[in-house]
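Chapter review: from sequence to fold.
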Amino acid sequence: MNKILNGLKTDINFIRSHTLQPQWYKVLKIFILIGFILFYYSLFGLTRTIIFLALFFFMAALVHIIYRVKTRTWTQNWLDFIIIDEDGKSSPRRIGRYYYTAIIINAIISLVISQILI
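The token string follows.
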């Protein structure tokens, strides 16, 4: 259990400190997500919204875990996650097409499944 909590702390610290996305986007995506959830709820109701959210967050967590493992906890290059050495200090660059493509595919799959199941 302690290993899981330490992993979560590491991930939270990374999310807060990374420069993979501009700071304004980190804030904006919260409002985009809330707006989309409210819009989806108003169109399709609570059950489909819950199914969509459960699937989307599960698949987003899988993408996160895959990136975390493949980059050896954010220290190694993999796909569009690139580490740059600046003044003897490693820092990640922005993520790109593979990450965002995976998130868009996850959203589409979640949308389709939430509509088919009920």
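Two observations follow directly from the output. Residues 26 and 88 are 27 Å apart (CA to CA). The chain has a mean pLDDT of 90.
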